[in-house]
Structure formats: C-alpha cells, structure tokens
C-alpha cells in the first residue's frame, strides 16, 4: 500500500533541496510519467512555460514505504523556526553507545552534503542532533 500522504517543503531551490534530502534519506528523484524520457520532455508536452520548469521537484522512497517529499518554489525566505520537522532515525534499536556513534557518523555525512549542525542533546538515555538543511530547515538525526 502506498503511503497516504506527502511532505511538502516551501523553498527557493526545489531541485537542490530535493537532491540534498534524497541523499540524506536514500530516496530518488520521482521518475517522470510513463511514456516520457525525462521531466523536461513531460513539461514541454504539457506546455508548461519554461520559466516554471524549475518550480518543483519530488523525491520518493525507492521501496515505496516512505512518504513522497515535494519541494515547491516560493518567493519568500524562511523567517522563523519550523513548526514541523523531520526526525531521521539512523540509530533506532541500537545500544546507546552504538546509537551515538551511528548518529555522529551520520552528522558527518550530512555536513558533507551541505547540512549544518545546530545542537546535540543527550537526555534520559536518548541522543539526537538538531541539524539544518541547506535552506535552514531544522531536522533531527537520532
């Protein structure tokens, strides 16, 4: 069964955000509709004006289990803390020391992808790191 929702991000550069999140989550660009070699061919066939070609980007879980992430271009910049954020579980079910090593390793990988580290938390046996994506959206690695 397909996941019954998607997560939509407002952003300045949908493709850059989508590529970042695809790398973080192990997702892939959503394939173009059947019968089209790529998205550009589809957009041309639908008579989408060229100035709108880069206004959206979508990524999907290649296993079909996670939600689709849709990135849409908006004119305004991010101005406050997110009211909603993703928690990326990279150490779930592991013993505390191993989980911490896994989270810290993932922090290093996400930094190389263009993310930024904000703050670490180690409370009541739980460990997580607050990060920001390239456009400043907060998320947690735990």
Describe how the helices and strands are arranged.
Elements: E1 6-11, H1 14-25, E2 28-29, H2 39-45, E3 56-60, E4 68-73, E5 86-88, H3 96-113, E6 116-123, E7 126-132, E8 138-141
Please explain how this structure is put together.
It is a single chain. The two termini are 27 Å apart. The protein folds into two domains: 6-73, Signal recognition particle alu RNA binding heterodimer, srp9/1 (2-Layer Sandwich); 86-141, 2,3-Dihydroxybiphenyl 1,2-Dioxygenase, domain 1. It has three helices and eight strands, in the order βαβαβββαβββ. It has helices spanning 14-25, 39-45, 96-113; strands spanning 6-11, 28-29, 56-60, 68-73, 86-88, 116-123, 126-132, 138-141. A hairpin with a 5-residue loop joins β7 (126-132) and β8 (138-141). The chain has 142 residues and is an alpha/beta fold. A four-stranded mixed beta sheet has the order 1-4-3-2, with helices on one face. A four-stranded mixed beta sheet has the order 5-8-7-6.
The gross shape turns out to be globular
Give the CATH architecture of the largest domain: 2-Layer Sandwich
- Structurally, how many domains make up the residues? 2
Name the average pLDDT.
94
CATH class type of the largest domain: Alpha Beta
Helix content: 25-40%
Distance between the termini: 27 Å
The largest pleated sheet is described as: 4 strands, mixed
- The assembly state of the depicted protein chains is single chain
* Succession of helices and strands: EHEHEEEHEEE
Stretches where pLDDT is under 50 for at least 5 consecutive residues are: none
By DSSP (H or I, 4+ residues per run), the number of helices equals 3
- Decide which structural class fits the backbone: alpha/beta
Fold-level CATH name of the largest domain? Signal recognition particle alu RNA binding heterodimer, srp9/1
The total of beta strands comes to 8
Radius of gyration using CA atoms only:
17 Å
Strand content: 25-35%
| Sheet with most strands: strand arrangement | 1-4-3-2
């Amino acid at each position: 069964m397909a996941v019954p929702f998607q997560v939509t991000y407002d952003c300045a550069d949908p493709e850059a955000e989508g590529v970042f999140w695809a790398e973080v989550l192990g997702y892939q660009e959503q394939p173009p509709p059947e019968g089209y070699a790529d998205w550009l061919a589809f957009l041309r066939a639908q008579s989408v004006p060229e100035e709108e070609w880069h206004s959206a980007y979508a990524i999907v879980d290649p296993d079909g289990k996670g939600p689709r992430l849709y990135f849409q271009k908006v004119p305004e910049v991010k101005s406050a803390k997110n009211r909603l954020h993703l928690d990326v579980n990279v150490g779930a079910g592991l013993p505390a020391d191993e989980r911490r090593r896994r989270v810290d390793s993932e922090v290093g990988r996400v930094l190389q992808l263009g993310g930024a580290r904000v703050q670490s938390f180690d409370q009541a046996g739980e460990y997580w790191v607050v990060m920001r994506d390239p456009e400043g959206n907060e998320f947690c690695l735990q």
